[in-house]
């Protein structure tokens, strides 16, 4: 477990003192993906530097598995730092080294022999999906592939914690999603604790189970990602949630009148998902259950969080009126909110 206890970090400037981190208290459980979100200057990197032992808090403490990092001897700190892997926005790869050599670098520094280094790098290359590219140079890779090398290198020393510091900020949306999927896979496979530092709520929604929102050095809101998406308390959190095109923040693109005009037949219903684990089986089960039932998707916007699906789906149900009614009852019985917009 990682524990930030009343952590403050102040910097002495020429004529004043700048508080970069103020009274931060956080607990991050083993194996959890924990997001820290904030705009530039919020104090995220300062937190990370303190967690990696590069800087000490001005007051308060940061503990990893019960040990205060600031109190470790330099030898203990070196061995502790091996347990923390880092990936960065600009990858920080060595351009004169091949992919394999980049991944082997931390093992070389740790004094691991050549054969073991090779074996380990091969496994990691496979894990991050870069088999066949071992002898390429970073300049020959796309941004997403470079980040895969960064991830493999960060895992070389079998860390317990992976810090992702804006690791997807330089990538396009599709590549971002591929890297986030890889982080999720690694988290599950290796039971790795991942600290996801970002200014993108999308990255948090897709991967993290908990999140802390930082502003001016303080954690202004924290909790389960799903709850925070449903009900943000602070203005800044609402802004982040809306930036992610949150389906809760938007009404349907068609008005009810337009829906009725465009879909005059059958029954039109709006389903609202609030943390449903999977909406597809619910809908396909419903069609299978009632023989005469057919459906058209009118519109919808559903996003996935680690706590389940959120959003809404408007469906036109065709079939006997009896089956339409039974379908609505069925949806209610599986805890899906179903509002009848129109009966044709
Ligand atoms: N070594 C330092 N000396 C003085 N001030 C610093 C130092 N490091 C950070 N700061 C200040 O602390 C505040 C928090 O900076 P920090 O880099 O932690 O924010 P951030 O959320 O990581 O932003 P970014 O994403 O832009 O890096 C900023 O006002 C910054 O100018």
Automatic annotation (TrEMBL):
The entry lists its GO molecular-function terms as: ATP binding
Q: Which UniProt keywords apply?
A: Amino-acid transport, ATP-binding, Cell membrane, Membrane, Nucleotide-binding, Translocase, Transport
What is the name of this protein?
A: Methionine ABC transporter ATP-binding protein
Pfam families for the chain? ABC_tran (PF00005), NIL (PF09383)
What PANTHER family does the annotation carry?
Answer: AMINO ACID IMPORT ATP-BINDING PROTEIN, METHIONINE IMPORT ATP-BINDING PROTEIN METN 2
- Top-rank lineage group of the source organism: Bacteria
The residues covered by the ABC transporter domain are 2-241
Q: Which Gene3D superfamilies match?
A: 3.30.70.260, P-loop containing nucleotide triphosphate hydrolases
